[in-house]
Write a structure and sequence with these properties.
The complex is a heterodimer of chains A (112) and B (115). Chain A is an all-beta fold. Chain A contains no helices and 11 strands. In chain A, the strands form 2 sheets. In chain A, strands 2, 4, 5, 6, 9, 10 and 11 form a 7-stranded mixed β-sheet that branches. A 4-stranded antiparallel β-sheet of chain A has the order 1-3-8-7, with no helix packed on it. Chain A starts with a strand and ends with a strand. Chain B is an all-beta fold and 115 residues long. Chain B is 0% helix and 52% strand. Chain B has no helices and 12 strands. In chain B, strands 2, 5, 6, 10, 11 and 12 form a 6-stranded mixed β-sheet that branches. In chain B, strands 3-9-8-7 form a 4-stranded antiparallel β-sheet, with no helix packed on it. In chain B, strands 1-4 form a two-stranded antiparallel sheet. In chain B, strand 7 and strand 8 form a beta hairpin. Chain B starts with a strand and ends with a strand. The chains are: A mainly beta (112), B mainly beta (115).
Amino acid sequence: KAGVTQTPRYLIKTRGQQVTLSCSPISGHRSVSWYQQTPGQGLQFLFEYFSETQRNKGNFPGRFSGRQFSNSRSEMNVSTLELGDSALYLCASSLKQGRTQYFGPGTRLLVL
Amino acid sequence: AQTVTQSQPEMSVQEAETVTLSCTYDTSESNYYLFWYKQPPSRQMILVIRQEAYKQQNATENRFSVNFQKAAKSFSLKISDSQLGDTAMYFCAFALSYNTDKLIFGTGTRLQVFP
């Protein structure tokens, strides 16, 4: 089975722009979660989706949003980018709640 | 709220030796999962081992084993016969057993394996 895929792998944006990141889970996996990784804050949970419903959301401003499609693919959007949004964004999928999450390679976002 | 603490920012070990990485956590829940993930320089997060809190038996995966002490809320990772490819950041993570897959991560331990 193919693993979790994330696109794009690298992205450079300027302050004030918006960005959309995509995540395709492992085939058959219905749960998708997103994490932000920065040197200062470490790994922080953004949100999770199951069957197109947001089940949980981390402590991030409303500029961070996401959604999940009927094929379980997920996107996250960050509007009005700030320098502090520069990070590695990781997506993880699992078969269902309580199962192990498997991570994608991440999208590295640089905001200038 | 749950927290995960990794008190060793960096560790080093010689090839073929054994090393133990520490992790403590805090929760008032009785059912949960604990994980060790490895993140090599490629930044790909890889599952090393998983432990269900209701299981008393410590999980093992080849050269990797854990010492799970539920009462002490401790979850250490032992790597036996260390290999150069084990060089990576290691993250301890906690997840509740219901209603969410949310992982709460520790700050990580950077492990360097020397030849």
